[in-house]
Amino acid sequence: MDQKEKEWLEQLEARAAGTFWDYLGCEALEVSRERTVIALDAEKKHLNAMDIVHGGVLASLLDNVMALAVMSARPGERTVTTNLNVHFVAPLAAGRLTATAKVLHESASTLTVEASVRGADGKLGTVGTGSFRMLK
User: Fold this and answer.
1) CB within 8 A of 17, min separation 6: which ones?
2) Helix, strand, coil proportions of the chain in percent (round to 5)?
3) Which of 42, 47, 31, 46 has its CA nearest to residue 103?
4) Backbone angles phi, psi at 92, to 5 degrees
5) Would you state the pLDDT for residue 1?
6) Spatial distance between the Cα atoms of 82 and 60, rounded to a whole number of angstroms
7) Is residue 3 pLDDT above 90, yes or no?
8) Is residue 14 pLDDT above 70, yes or no?
9) Residue 17, SS3?
10) Does the pLDDT value for residue 27 go beyond 70?
11) What pLDDT is attached to residue 129?
């Protein structure tokens, strides 16, 4: 990651203080047009009654990493999620979760993104796609 990307991430973290991103405990690891990666250390508060990571947490990770990918593709522009598709393919346990996203398609007003979440052991737990609309 170059210096400009590091500075952008620092600004993002400062803006995210006190937001849902911060509440979940997300951490941006890599942000570029080619690939965006965030992490979350899943704790007891992120689990459901079956002791696996709650689906809402996983969906939120997908939404967050995809939105960050869109922000990287369109710096300085505002965006909202218009569609989020989530597939829970395997349960994930507490520990380090890593979400990765990449922009698949881009038009003047919308972007389509794909993402996945893996557990600390590298196991694929969740995959999804999202559509994002640029705000004027």
Assistant:
1) none
2) 30, 45, 25
3) 31
4) -120, 145
5) 63
6) 14
7) no
8) yes
9) coil
10) yes
11) 98
Average pLDDT value for residue range 57-75: 95
Domains, in order of start, for the chain:
3-135 (3.10.129.10)
The average pLDDT across 86-90 equals 98
- The two structure tokens encoding residue 84: 């989020």
What value does the mean pLDDT take over residues 131-136?
94
Which amino acid, residue 79? T
* Residues with Cβ within 8 Å of residue 24, at least 6 apart in sequence: 40, 46, 57, 60, 61, 64
Residue 83 identity? N
Q: Is the dihedral of CA 57, 59, 63, 66 positive or negative?
A: positive
Residues in the chain: 136
Q: H helices within 1-136, ranges in order? A: 3-16, 20-24, 55-73
Question: DSSP label at 94?
Answer: S
> Two tokens at 135?
């705000």
Q: What does the block give as tokens for 53?
A: 């990571």
The token duo for 79 is 């965006």
- Report whether 89 contacts 118 (CB < 8 A): no
Confidence class of residue 89 from pLDDT cuts 50, 70 and 90?
Answer: very high
Q: Which residues contact 3 (CB under 8 A, 6 or more apart)?
A: none
